[in-house]
Design brief:
Helix content: 40-55%
Largest sheet: 3 strands, antiparallel
Order of helices and strands: HHEHHEEH
Radius of gyration: 17 Å
Strand order of the largest sheet: 1-3-2
Length: 105
């Protein structure tokens, strides 16, 4: 569990920003060009680039260059991994760090 915590901590940190959550929501429907994402927000292009850098570095979003344009989409493998991790984190389990779930003291 400890390795998984390290793996997904950057994703949760990236998703702790309201703008980035809204970007992920937009991308959940389709791949979008940065210019289309920018149309939905009252932010500058450098600010969008900053948010996209954080989302791509943590692995939740994938980007690809198409000439002068950047296109972004959700990384399905990572999003499914995050969902599984969150479910496992919130479920009662034998190896819980509180040590109460398994009856250990």
């Amino acid at each position: 569990m400890q390795n998984e915590c390290s793996k997904y901590a950057a994703v949760f940190k990236a998703l702790s920003d309201e703008t980035r959550l809204k970007i992920v929501d937009l991308l959940s429907c389709e791949e979008l060009c940065a210019c289309k994402i920018l149309e939905r927000f009252s932010i500058t292009q450098p600010t969008l680039s900053y948010h996209m850098k954080i989302l791509t570095e943590c692995g939740i979003v994938l980007g690809k260059r198409d000439g002068a344009w950047m296109h972004y989409r959700i990384n399905k493998d990572m999003s499914e991994g995050v969902a599984e991790f969150l479910k496992k984190l919130l479920d009662t389990k034998q190896d819980c760090s509180c040590m109460k779930c398994s009856g250990r003291k």
